[in-house]
Structure formats: structure tokens, C-alpha cells
Amino acid sequence: MSRFEEKPVRSFEGFTPRAALATALIFGLFLALFPLYAPFAEHPRHDDGALAAAFTLFFFVANQTLGMIHEAGHGVCYLLPCPQWVMIAMGTVFQLAFPLGVAWFFRRRGNAMGWWIGIFFTGFSLRYTAWYISTVDRGPRVSASESFLGVDGLHDFYYLLDSVGLREAYLSLSFGVTMVAYALMLWAVGGMFAYAFSMRKKR
Question: Residues 13, 14, 19, 23: is their CA dihedral positive or negative?
Fold first, then answer.
């Protein structure tokens, strides 16, 4: 018996088959549009269509939420006596650990859709991380116009990679992280559809 079958799905914590399928379709569409409309896509499109508007809203809410969590990771080390390397790394650690923790929470509760949504946003967060790594060539500082907080600051990955001798490999690292990010998001969407269809068969 799988983890997701150990506990009955109750209405307040689970999905009906129709809701599960709708959720899978929404996340699948978002993933399909990601390479086209994400701000850090290779050649992002700019149009006024409904799909572009829906993607932009979804992306903005998710990205801003993870951005706040990223800054909270740094903030923990403003309160605790962390070494500088740890303080800088904690932003990305928090940004990845939060959606992964959400996924694990729902898995422990036997809620498959919650698990897959958490995995999807872990991949989403990794895709942002890959983009951040790809900007190492811009130098050790992030300008206020590009900073989440709107102030000049250290470029996390310039400092982290330079300190361990991997700064010149930033493009290879960015590519590898991008592949893992898309693999996680694709795995999550596939899991959502598989779960939705399995629920329909059981009815």
C-alpha cells in the first residue's frame, strides 16, 4: 500500500477527481508556457493575450513568494552569528527547502496532489536559481534595479562560486540546474495527471 493510500482523502484536505484533473491541466499549461513567457527565458515573448496575462500573474505570485522566502533565509543569519558564506547561501537554501518542506508535509498526510504541487514549486525555485547562477558574469554586485529588495547588494552566486573556485563553470552549473528544474516540474505534472486519472478510475 502506498503512502497516498494509507489515509482516506477527506474533503477539506484532498481533491475530487475533477478538481485534481483541473489542477493538473493548470500546472501543465503553466509548464508548457514557461519557456515562452518566463522573464529569464532565452527569447521571452511579449504579447497581450489571455494566456500571457494568466502566466504572468501565476509567475509573479509564485516568484514574489519565493523571493520573500529567499530573503528570509538571509535574514535568519542577520539574527544568528552565521559565517558570511552560510549567510549568503541561506537565501537559496530557504528558497528550495520551503516548497520541498511543503511537499513532504503533504506526503506525510497522504495528500498526493499537495505533494506534487510542492515538488512542482521546488522545480520552479530551482529554475530561478539556475537563472541567478547564469548572471554571475554581471559581476559581484546586484544593482538595485535587479534586486528583490530594490537596493544594491552582493551577488549570491558570484560570491559562493568564487569562494570554492567554480566561478568559471557558472554556465555549466546553470545548465545542469535548469535541466533538474524542468525534470522536477515535468515529473510533478506527470504525477498530477496520473493521480487525477487514478481517482477517476476508482469512482
Answer: positive
Q: Assess contact for 23 and 128: CB atoms under 8 A.
A: no
Q: Is 117 part of any domain?
A: yes
SS3 87: helix
Closest Cα to residue 135, out of 178, 171, 181, 84? 171
What amino acid occupies position 192? M
Q: What is the pLDDT of residue 17?
A: 83
Measured in Å, how far apart are the chain's first and last C-alpha atoms?
A: 18
Task: State pLDDT tens for residues 166-198.
Answer: 999 999 999 999 999 999 999 999 999 999 888
Give the domain extent around 152. Answer: 14-202
Rounded Cα distance, 177 and 120, in Å: 14
pTM greater than 0.85: yes
Q: Which residue has the cell 506526503?
A: 107
What region, left, alpha or beta, does residue 110 occupy, with left being phi > 0 and alpha being psi -120 to 50 degrees?
Answer: left
**Residue 42 main-chain phi, psi, to 5 deg:** -60, -45
Tens digit of pLDDT for each residue in 130-168?
999 999 998 888 765 565 555 567 899 999 999 999 999
Helix (H, G, I), strand (E, B) or coil at 153: strand
- The number of CA neighbours under 13 Å toward the Cβ of 185 is 23
Q: Is residue 9 part of a domain?
A: no
Domains: count for the chain: 1
